[in-house]
Structure formats: structure tokens, C-alpha cells
Amino acid sequence: MKILILNGPNLNLLGRREPSIYGNLTFDEFFDSLKKKYTNIELQYYQSNVEGEIINKLHEVGFSFDGVILNAGAYTHTSVAIGDAIKGIETSVIEVHISNIQARENFRHISYIAPNAKGIIAGFGLQSYELAIQSFL
Predict the structure, then answer these.
(1) What is the pLDDT of residue 103?
(2) Is 59 one of the catalytic residues?
(3) 2-136: CATH class
């Protein structure tokens, strides 16, 4: 089984950015722990602050991977193009968020990804990613 974790803008700052919301662990540290725990899965990780690069990555893996776990960050609420990219691929995508986006600003309550995603997991910190992995198993 091949699963890509795809993170969007500003998630490269995890561990340093707003630790009260996002915690103190870097994503690389967390990803290493996932790889050790899920040795039977080929886990890959990609992060970009650029919308087009996220779309390109979805196109690249969208017909050959078993799943994509996508935290598109703020692009969740603004990018029709990422939503269309998900609609155009065969691989199932799960939308994840570290924080509970429904408990945050009103603009974060809208997702252009959700209508094309297999499901949404939000508000469980970094464990949201692990819950998404488990949904693919």
C-alpha cells in the first residue's frame, strides 16, 4: 500500500508556528514516527507552499497510489483548482486538519476540498494524520 501525505502552505513551520494550536513537534519528527509504526505501508511525504506544486503532486500520484492524506492549509478555503484536481484523479483523498477548523474563523468553515474527498478528519492534532492512515487500512 502506498500513501502520500501532502501538506500545504505554512505546514513546514510546524513545531515553531503557533505551538498553542499546532504543537511543538516538527512534521518531519512526526512523519518519522509514522514510518516506524506503519512499516507495512509505503508512506511518502511532500510539502509545498505553492498551489500549483500541490496540484502537480496530486496529478503525479493520483492514478498509482492507494491514498492521499491532504492538509491543504489555507488553500482548503480558497482553491477551487485543488478541489478540481482531486475530482480529476482516481486515488482517494482524505482532507485533514490539525485544528478544529469549525471552531476557528468563519472563512475556515468553507472547504473546496471536502466535496471531492473521501472524508474529513479535523481537530485531533497530528493524530488526524494517523486516523486518516487507519481509514485506508
Answers:
(1) 60
(2) no
(3) alpha beta
